[in-house]
Automatic annotation (TrEMBL):
It catalyses: uridine(1498) in 16S rRNA + S-adenosyl-L-methionine = N(3)-methyluridine(1498) in 16S rRNA + S-adenosyl-L-homocysteine + H(+). Pfam families: Methyltrans_RNA. GO terms for biological process: rRNA base methylation. The lineage of its organism: Bacteria, Bacillati, Bacillota, Bacilli, Bacillales. InterPro entries: Alpha/beta_knot_MTases (IPR029028), PUA-like_sf (IPR015947), RsmE (IPR006700), RsmE_MTase_dom (IPR046886), tRNA_m1G_MTases_N (IPR029026). This is Ribosomal RNA small subunit methyltransferase E. Keywords: Cytoplasm, Methyltransferase, rRNA processing, S-adenosyl-L-methionine, Transferase. One of its GO terms (molecular function) is rRNA (uridine-N3-)-methyltransferase activity. It comes from Alkalicoccus urumqiensis. Residues 68-236 form the Ribosomal RNA small subunit methyltransferase E methyltransferase domain. SUPFAM superfamilies: alpha/beta knot, PUA domain-like. Transmembrane segments: none annotated. Belongs to the RNA methyltransferase RsmE family. PANTHER family: 16S RRNA (URACIL(1498)-N(3))-METHYLTRANSFERASE, RIBOSOMAL RNA SMALL SUBUNIT METHYLTRANSFERASE E. It is an enzyme of class 2 (transferase).
């Protein structure tokens, strides 16, 4: 069933005015008629609704199932080249990420001025919204504007748990850290995962983040920057959803 996210809605009123972008998709793209059903989500709550008119829907009932990960995972990613972050946001949303926190890493090749950073954030947020609709999420992950490393340290200090995907741990042969970390995390926790761009994090960055996040290996193979966050989100889904 088609799903739409709207910024603010009072589902308890029984009827919901449809925003212009939803109206356009319902009426012009999907060509729905009065009485056709779809799903509306706002603030983590989703309802089944039916079309009353071109710009209004009737709430039919609350959807009880919760498709969200039992832990809140923020992907803090050193800005990579080209459109790799767009792939991470799209697929990471499908895999359950709660937020994306791009930051300027020492090895980030791309540099964005303030104007470009704003436009990028708007595009990234749109990608997250579309992926959330496609994957039947109950909320849209928030994508931050490009951040500094100091802002990332502050975010790590606020989180319940943090880990750093650090390839030096893989080279050393220590592959148990991720499993040990998962065993300490409680459902409902706020977790930040830090990943570098192409070339990874520098030793200085890993040292700066390590008081607030544990460096871990992702196995014996070195993963691409766009593969690593998807691997970790899959691990979190398996551990907290399929093993419980």
């Amino acid at each position: 069933m088609q799903r739409y996210f709207i910024d603010t809605a009072d589902f308890s009123r029984g009827t919901v005015p449809l925003p212009e972008d939803v109206q356009h998709h319902v009426n012009r793209v999907m060509r729905m008629e009065e009485g056709d059903s779809f799903i509306l989500c706002s603030g983590g709550t989703c309802v089944e609704a039916e079309l009353l008119s071109e710009n209004e829907a009737q709430v039919k009932g609350l959807l009880e199932n919760d498709p969200e990960l039992p832990v809140s995972v923020t992907i803090a990613h050193g800005l990579p080249k080209a459109d790799k972050l767009e792939l991470v946001i799209q697929k990471g949303t499908e895999l359950g990420a709660d937020a994306f926190f791009p930051f300027e890493a020492s090895r980030s090749v791309v540099r964005l001025d303030e104007k470009k950073a704003v436009k990028k954030q708007e595009r990234w947020q749109k990608i997250a919204r579309e992926a959330a609709e496609q994957s039947h999420r109950s909320r849209v992950p928030y994508v931050f504007q490009l951040q500094s490393k100091n802002a990332l340290i502050q975010r790590l200090q606020e989180a319940d748990y943090g880990i750093i995907a650090y390839e030096e741990n893989a080279k050393s042969g220590d592959h148990e850290g991720l499993h040990r970390f998962l065993e300490t995390v409680e459902p409902g926790a706020d977790v930040v995962i830090v990943l570098g761009p192409e070339g990874g994090l520098t030793p200085e960055e890993a040292e700066a983040f390590s008081p607030y996040a544990a460096p871990v290996s992702l196995g014996p193979r070195i993963l691409r920057t766009e593969t690593a966050p998807l691997y970790l989100l899959s691990v979190f889904s398996y551990y907290f959803e399929l093993m419980r």
